[in-house]
Amino acid sequence: MNSNDILIANTDDLRSDMDYLEKTLLKGHRIDPNLYEEYDVKRGLRDSTGRGVLTGLTEVSDVCGFDVINGRKIPAEGGLYYQGINVNDLINGLKGKRFGFEETTFLLLFGRLPKKDELEHFLKVLSELEDLSGRFVRDVVMKASSSNIMNALQRCVLTLYTYDENPEDISVENALRQALELIAKLPLIAVYSYHAYRHFRKDETLLIRNPEKGRSLAENILYMLRPDGQYTELEAKVLDVALILHAEHGGGNNSTFTTHVVTSSGTDTYSAIAASIGSLKGPRHGGANLKAQGMFDDIKKSVKDWTNEDEIREYLRLILDKKAFDKTGLIYGMGHAVYTISDPREKILKSYAQKLASEKGFDDEFALYDRVERIAGEEIMTHRKMLKPVCANVDFYSGFVYTMLNIPEELFTPLFAIARITGWSAHRLEELLNAGKIIRPAYKYVGQHTEFHNRDDRN
Ligand SMILES: CC(=O)SCCNC(=O)CCNC(=O)[C@H](O)C(C)(C)COP(=O)(O)OP(=O)(O)OC[C@H]1O[C@@H](n2cnc3c(N)ncnc32)[C@H](O)[C@@H]1OP(=O)(O)O
Ligand SMILES: O=C([O-])CC(=O)C(=O)O
């Protein structure tokens, strides 16, 4: 894209008008921080102990980060249950099997694991629904390519509305059909959008390969992405595991809660899913996998001796003091709203990261990640004066794993979306089936009512 393509004109007059508007904006809109306490505002929808305000019920999954003993919250090892099944058992039970993510999708949507013949039929359904018409690829995916593939996903999902003969029908039957279509199509949209970006923005050869029937969703991603279409069994297995681990995380996480909020207004599936993709893109949520990758690139450059724990600690303190990396004060891949001692998904991904690292010659990098994980937890707690433990989350090792699978970083967060759309869909269906009330929390007005002045009388 050259500068002529940018829509906003950049004249001196406009710049000075914009400066004025920015200054005007900055004069208002500051709310006295003490008022939040005075009115007991549940900021971030949390109570005073940091626990999420109870806003719904779900059977889709259970996220456990602490025990409650005599009414007190005690930090505990993390647990995650999909439709009642411990995710560790799910991963172990699917060891050596293909189509783990597809099986998990069935479990999350329909409430139980599929029997053998049910899985076969389900795979056939997904494979039939994954087709994207040539017209859609040409007119939507290839046009106005975006450097941010999450943005491309949102645009494509919204445009699928116009390719749907029945977009507005929110009956459970139609919403299920739309959910399955989106689950099946999203991998193609993500990979093709990435290829469009490489071709139109980086002048590289355009590659569009149809998915192949009989391959799993994880296998097809690698097959469509790589110029030679080749991958090893371990690579496909690791990607399948990563997709399972990212598929669902309760109703309260930011993107799934977005699904609930938007669904509760009675709007269509495409609007709800596009909104959730927008939420997941944020660096404090799913976008953290990309940020963690950038942060590690920075650490690798800035820390001279990767084995020197003091040097690592010093650098992490600079991050927390907003003096290094993106200057937000956040160490990405660390911390969680629910988990305390551990995130069960991180442990699984870490074990695969170690395996891949020793196969692909990344042992030094793995050891660095391991050190940063330990030291960062200690430093965040000290720096933020926190009493509860801070653990690494699912995003800590995922980017590292994807890098070892030769997956480009533009696709890190889209892979999260390809997996989490399953959870969003299960929650949308749950919201529709249980005819939830429109979600509408309160905001207290803390400004002042003032008199209207005629235009000529304003100063
Ligand atoms: C898929 C996912 O969404 S997993 C999360 C991915 N996100 C990240 O990895 C980004 C880094 N982590 C974070 O920003 C946070 O830990 C979150 C957003 C995940 C959770 O935030 P919260 O629920 O507010 O966590 P918690 O209540 O434990 O935080 C307490 C304090 O510690 C700070 N803190 C928590 N994690 C971190 C971190 N990784 N780096 C620096 N400070 C942190 C918080 O900013 C918060 O300070 P505040 O009260 O002044 O806002
Ligand atoms: O639950 C949360 O707050 C964040 C999330 O989606 C996850 O960890 O997968």
Would you give an account of this structure?
- It comes from [Ruminococcus] torques.
- This protein has 459 residues and is mainly alpha-helical.
- The chain has 18 helices and three strands.
- It folds into two domains: 78-283 and 410-433, Orthogonal Bundle (Citrate Synthase, domain 1), CATH 1.10.580.10; 288-404, Orthogonal Bundle (Cytochrome p450-Terp, domain 2).
- The protein has helices spanning 12-27, 33-38, 87-93, 100-110, 116-129, 134-141, 149-160, 172-202, 217-225, 233-246, 254-264, 269-280, 288-302, 309-320, 344-360, 363-383, 395-404, 412-433; strands spanning 61-69, 72-82, 85-86.
- Helix 7 crosses helix 8 and helix 12 (269-280) packs across helix 18.
- The mean pLDDT is 95.
- It binds acetyl coenzyme *A and oxaloacetate ion.
- Acetyl coenzyme *A binds next to loops.
